Structure formats: C-alpha cells, structure tokens
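Researcher: Next entry in the queue.
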Amino acid sequence: MNRPSRNQTSPAEAELLREVFAEAALDVTPSVVPLAAIEREGRRRKRRRRAAVLGGACGVLLAPLAVVVLQGGISPDASDGSERVDPPAASSGPRPSVSASRAGKVRVVTPGERVKVSTGVEIWLTEDGKHWSEPDQPTQFRSVTDGNLDLSTPGVSLQESGQDNGLFFLSGIFYGEGEPSRVAVETLAGDLDGTALTLAGRPGWGVWYAEVKVPQALLSSSDAATGVTRRVTVYDSAGGVIATQEFSA
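Model: Structure for this entry, 249 residues:
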C-alpha cells in the first residue's frame, strides 16, 4: 500500500484549506478609494501647468514691449525709481515764416468800391480807370480810356509816393490777357508780393499796389535816384506772365 508523502496534501486537506482561505477573505474589508483627493490633486497640477504656460507666453510678449517703450523715450534709470518720460525733441530745422510786407492777394471789387490799402490811403476802380486818395492830397486819377495806355499791348504803370520815415506806397495799372493770380514787386529794399484789384467781368486791366519800408541808407544812395521800384510782374494761376515792366536799370 502506498502512503502519502509528508510534503503532499491530501484532497481532503486541500478542500479544508480552500474553505479556511475563503472565510478569511470574507472577513477582509477593502479600503475606500480617495476619489475626491485624487480629483483635487489633478486640478492642482492642471493649474500649475496652465500658470507655467501663461507665464512663459507673457514673458515672450513683454520682452519686445519693453524694448519699444525704452526706445520711445522712457528712462528706466530714474533716481527716484519712477519712470521718466522724455518729451519729443523739437525740430532743429528752420520754421517757415511769412512777412506781413510780402502778403498779397487778388480781390474782385465793384465799380466805386473803396478799398483801404494803407494808413489814410484808399483806392477804387471805375470802368474808366483807377482812383486813389492819400492824406493831405487831392484825389488822383489814371484813365484807361483816354489813350495814354495802349491796352492792346501788355504793360504795367507805376505811381510812387513816399513819407519821411521811408515808407513808400507803390501802385499802378496792369493790362494784358489772363486772370491775375499774383503780383511780384522788386524794390530797392527787396522783393515783395503786391495785391491786385480787378473789376468783375475781366475787362483786361486791373490795379496793383504794395507798401515797402526803405532804409534811410538806401534812400541816400545813388540807386534811389530813379525811384524805389525796380520791376513789377503780374502772373496768372498757371505761372504765366500777364504783364511785366522794368522801371529802373
């Protein structure tokens, strides 16, 4: 008869062991899975990753912004720790200026309309010519119909009157084809723009005038012997010459 080995378990013993292990397993209660803690940890890690990404992106954006601000005139090394904004530097180029004595224009007037052109001086136009008055002087007249001016050929006339302080009033009649836009007056004291007066309907003539202050040193020179006006030129809007006249060499 064969006897079971000491190291072998009989079928009855094996069945008994299974029953004992099963009962022991029933007595073991598994621990609860900490789901809430796992969710909190997941959210915390997600927030950390998001903050890291945003921080890196902001750093990339702020770096060029700082360069732009510094180039725009903000000094980062202010002694009080605050930012100092430097105002834009003023332009070093010359500023354009307009001399009042050069200001000129073209004005259309009605017959008999008096225009004050200087202190105590008035000019008015009628269909037969130019009229003007000066302080302590009788009214003066230059006709465009008496034959003294040949209106068929472009030209410019001149009348000068001066005062003891060197202030000169210059005026005359211009005539030629075209609508006047500018009057250039060359004088002993320099160049300036005159003003043109015309009647409505473009009659083919008009009146120009200007005022100039001539220094006493120039008036005492030999150049002033022939007057202070050198040339008068009337231009149209395209820059063409309507009429021009030289008055002294």
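Model: Residues 1-5, 57-103 have pLDDT under 50 and may be disordered.
Researcher: Noted, moving on.
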